[in-house]
Amino acid sequence: MLADVMQIPELLADLAVKDIKVWVEGDRLRCNAPAGALTAESSNQLRERKGEIIAFLNMATAAAQQQPAIIPLQSRGTRTPIYAVPGHIGAPFSFSDLSKHLGGDQPFYALQPSGFDGQSEPMERVEDIAEYFARQIVAYQPTGPYIIAGYCSGAATALELAKILRQRGAEVPCMALFGPLHPITFKELPRQLYFFANRTADSFLREIAKLPTFGARLRYFGRRLRNLGGHVGALVTPKEPVTTDPVLASRARLKSTAITALRRYTPTPYSGRVCIFLPNKAWMRSGAAPRQWLRVTPQAEFYFGPEDCNDSRMLEEPDAPAIAELYRQATRRAGRLM
Fold first, then answer.
1. Burial code of 7-44, b = ≥16 C-beta within 10 A, e = fewer?
2. What is the pLDDT of residues 226-244, one digit of tens each?
3. Topology (CATH level 3) of domain 1-65
4. Which of 107, 186, 243, 278 could, after both became Cys, cross-link 81 (CB 3.0–4.6 A)?
């Protein structure tokens, strides 16, 4: 599950704060901790999730030895490689489930933005982020073709990235946008509030349906209601939360900077092939403004997932197989492997 994969960095960061060192030797996971620092809970996590942690550390080591923005989720295969821009939280592993279901013959590289590692500074313009990714991609793979993908708010950067590569002579047979948020979503307050309310209501209904009793549902409703004001405030005026955790602080800053960059950005026309993959047809009325992309990509093709697809987690299990199949439909429509 993607949720588990995305928790691995947080687990390792928490151990590092306590001066607990974790590393890989061959197929073994090693750990060195000061006396009393390793709790029973952390020890169980290391033991039960050993395979996941080893895979994550090996992937991180491989990434550190190459271009820092290139995170290989699937490095083997004969098809045209996909280079994918994550959403505004910058998490490259948001594509893990999708890459798995696209199969072993589809190379897939997630793009990690500057600032995600907590060492570099986040960039304040979509155009600068795209230029950074373009340099990293060409350094890693000097010649195309490339498939450029973008998820959620990363769609704007994907658009700029595809334009840069094409302007420099590279072949980009397709740009794939997954659940794209048009920048206008963050520029118009009524639309932004509507999108937030729509997504919150969908999440609320999904979660409350899992609770066994009326009392449990009532308590859950109360907790959500208390948190609502803070969520709305953060949405309208993104701020960097106060935290002593350096990892969380850097991620919060990256998110805030990315949203600001998106608000400043205005898309311009793109003449290449564009495939827009939406979680379901209801997404057309979600406030994400998917039709706005037609103003700059008038020939864009739309593909829709199943009605019960969880729009906020469309690339995760259990919906990732359906979205992967939509992508395969798009490749077949193109008349050749991408």
1. ebbebbeebeeeebebebeeeebeeebeeeebeeebee
2. 555 555 455 455 555 555 6
3. Arc Repressor Mutant, subunit A (1.10.10)
4. 107
